[in-house]
What we know:
The chain is mostly helical. The protein has helices at about 1-25, 30, 40-45, 50-60, 70-80; strands at about 40, 65. The protein has one domain: Orthogonal Bundle (Recoverin, domain 1), CATH 1.10.238. Strands 1-2 form a two-stranded antiparallel ribbon. One calcium ion binds near residues 65 and 70.
Amino acid sequence: MENTMKKTLLTAAIMTTATLAIAEDALEFSAVDADSNGLISMEEAAVNEALLDSFSALDLDVDGNLTEDEFAAFTVASAE
Ligand SMILES: [Ca+2]
Ligand SMILES: [Ca+2]
């Protein structure tokens, strides 16, 4: 009975660690938007190499900034 409880705790610990790892990988819009103006400029995107590489593809209206909607496409694509 005690072993079962230890197993359950161990499983819970592993799941918690996995969840934290995913959270670290996810890029938050607010974290990239350094000046909090609601847009990610190319300079701000430069903090993440993958984001900078995808910048022109994500900037659908080609105004040189990523809105939260445009940035959301990157978050989804990188999670796949
Ligand atoms: Ca900004
Ligand atoms: Ca744009």
